[in-house]
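Per your request, structure below.
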């Protein structure tokens, strides 16, 4: 690896975690320069949590935003919290916050998750939370392991209570937040290792924003009752493993039928070539 590439990795690690260059180098060296693995290990080992959060301060903040007629922070309190944090309620970083605080549903935060979540993140003030949001946003975009955790939690978080699937419109809205973030930051970087693809050809490039729009178009045209948990979960793996022309797709593999149907639709509409035409 060139010195320039190493410097970029060090810079990315430090900007995401707030760690020193010494710690960044130690974790990157330990994990063979794999940024996502190094960052995940850093946080698992307690890195970045030098401040011990005050439970009393967090309790006071919870009471500030809590529904006066209930035991949780609800939609009104969430809107006020977002205003204080100066973050759009539809900003993707709030999905990371929902994961960290174990929010059960959109606009709902219970006291246990609030106190334990912010404590793990080392925050007990609004200003501290603002700084943490910046770090979480960077981590969500660049760390594949962390992105996957937030992505998985989002299905249950976004689902209407009592329903087993996500309404298509709801799924599209959350994908529209998550997928561009992962593609831009590298969390959804493509792993084509071991695939029988000409790495100098067009098939070597993976999923892009254009493929996301195809997926949206396919689901909108297909309609149906909703998006199953299996389809939601497996799309993450599909995006990371597929080439841009879907040449590596194996119809005999254990993909959800919606993904197999999407590949067939893309071929039938001429968006990608059929295997026989390549």
């Amino acid at each position: 690896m060139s010195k320039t590439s190493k410097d970029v990795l060090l810079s990315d690690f430090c900007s995401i975690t707030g760690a020193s260059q010494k710690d960044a180098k130690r974790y990157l060296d330990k994990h063979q320069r794999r940024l996502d693995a190094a960052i995940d290990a850093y946080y698992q080992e307690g890195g970045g949590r030098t401040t011990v959060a005050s439970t009393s301060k967090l309790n006071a903040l919870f009471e500030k935003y809590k529904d006066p007629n209930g035991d949780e922070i609800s939609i009104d309190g969430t809107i006020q919290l977002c205003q204080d944090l100066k973050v759009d309620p539809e900003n993707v970083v709030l999905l990371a916050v929902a994961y960290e605080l174990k929010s059960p549903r959109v606009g709902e935060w219970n006291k246990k998750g609030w106190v334990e979540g912010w404590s793990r993140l080392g925050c007990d003030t609004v200003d501290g939370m603002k700084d943490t949001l910046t770090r979480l946003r960077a981590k969500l975009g660049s760390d594949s392991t962390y992105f996957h955790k937030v992505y998985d939690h989002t299905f249950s978080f976004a689902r209407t209570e009592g329903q087993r699937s996500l309404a298509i419109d709801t799924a599209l809205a959350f994908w529209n937040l998550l997928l561009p973030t992962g593609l831009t930051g590298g969390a959804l970087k493509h792993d084509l290792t071991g695939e029988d693809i000409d790495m100098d050809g067009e098939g070597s490039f993976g999923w892009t924003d254009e493929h996301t729009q195809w997926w949206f178009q396919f689901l909108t045209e297909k309609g149906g009752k909703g998006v199953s948990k299996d389809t939601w979960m497996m799309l993450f793996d599909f995006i990371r493993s597929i080439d841009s022309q879907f040449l590596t797709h194996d119809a005999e593999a254990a993909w959800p039928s919606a993904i197999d149907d999407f590949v067939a639709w893309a071929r039938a509409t001429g968006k990608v070539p059929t295997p026989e035409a390549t």
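The chain has 13 helices and no strands.

Regards,
D.
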